[in-house]
Design goal:
globular; five-stranded mixed beta sheet; about 110 residues; 5 strands; alpha+beta
Length: about 110
C-alpha cells in the first residue's frame, strides 16, 4: 500500500466518522460554545464535513481562503441572537477546539 493510498483511506475514514458525528441541534444548546468563542459558522455553500476535514488536517491554506472569502468565521453576536430568538436548528460537529455550525436548511 502506498502512502497516497493510506492518506486517501484516512481521509475517507475521517469523512465517514465526521458524517456520523454531525447532528442537527437547537442553537440554544450551543450557547456555551458561542460564549467561549468556539462556535464557527460554515457558509451554506460549503460542505460541513469537508470543512471539518480541512480544519482537522490543519490545512491553513484552504482554511485561510475560506476565512478571507467570508465562508467560515466566528459566529457573530447578531447571528447568534437571530438564531436564539428564532429557536433555530443548526447542523453541528465538533472539531476540537471548535464546534462548526451550519444552518439546517443546507442539508435538508
Amino acid at each position: 500500500m502506498s502512502d497516497m493510498d493510506t492518506a486517501e483511506d484516512r481521509s475517507e475514514i475521517f469523512r465517514a466518522k465526521v458524517n456520523l458525528e454531525t447532528a442537527q441541534i437547537a442553537w440554544k444548546e450551543l450557547q456555551r460554545f458561542f460564549a467561549s468563542g468556539a462556535a464557527v459558522v460554515v457558509s451554506a455553500e460549503l460542505d460541513l464535513v469537508e470543512v471539518s476535514f480541512h480544519i482537522s488536517e490543519d490545512d491553513t491554506t484552504q482554511v485561510e481562503q475560506w476565512l478571507r472569502a467570508g465562508q467560515i468565521g466566528k459566529v457573530s453576536d447578531e447571528q447568534a441572537m437571530a438564531w436564539f430568538e428564532s429557536d433555530a436548528m443548526v447542523w453541528a460537529v465538533v472539531v476540537s477546539p471548535y464546534v462548526l455550525v451550519q444552518t439546517a436548511e443546507r442539508l435538508q
